[in-house]
Design brief:
Layout lengths: L2 H14 L3 H4 L10 E2 L6 E2 L8 H27 L3 H7 L5 H29 L8 H8 L1
Antiparallel strand pairs: 1-2
């Protein structure tokens, strides 16, 4: 996988879906209300019971968060190796997964660039060699 092109592609797809907040960690999961110890029903911070409408609104917000976060995870998981997927799959949210994928690949990208630069510097067209083939190999 070419990290530079992968990163650009994935961020473009996620941005086109309006989900960048999930990648950069700005989207936060709505916090469910506490449960009343006696009744086992959700209550507001002032201990008053929630109306059915308030409960439904919170449930919808939580569902929306999980759905959008899962869309981002889906995009990331589609294009990474199974090995990398196993390393990051247990992370809670897509922002943490993306951050870990970035850390892993950023270091590898620098090593690959250094290695490539060394190999290019060492390449020579032999005396009387095919210059066209040499340029093809350089490319």
């Amino acid at each position: 996988m070419n990290w530079i092109t992968y990163k650009e592609r994935i961020l473009t797809v996620i941005g086109a879906r309006g989900l960048m907040w999930y990648v950069d960690g700005q989207a936060t999961k709505p916090i469910p209300y506490a449960l009343d110890a006696k009744m086992g029903k959700p209550v507001k911070p002032d201990s008053t019971p929630l109306t059915a409408t308030e409960t439904k609104e919170l449930d919808n917000k939580i569902d929306e968060f999980y759905q959008k976060d899962s869309l981002v995870k889906q995009q990331i998981f589609r294009m990474i190796t199974d090995r990398l997927l196993l390393c990051v799959q247990k992370l809670e949210v897509s922002a943490k997964i993306w951050a870990e994928v970035c850390v892993i690949h950023k270091g590898k990208t620098e090593l690959v660039q250094i290695d490539l630069r060394h190999r290019l510097q060492d390449m020579r067209c032999e005396e009387g060699g095919d210059i066209k083939a040499h340029f093809g190999e350089l490319l």
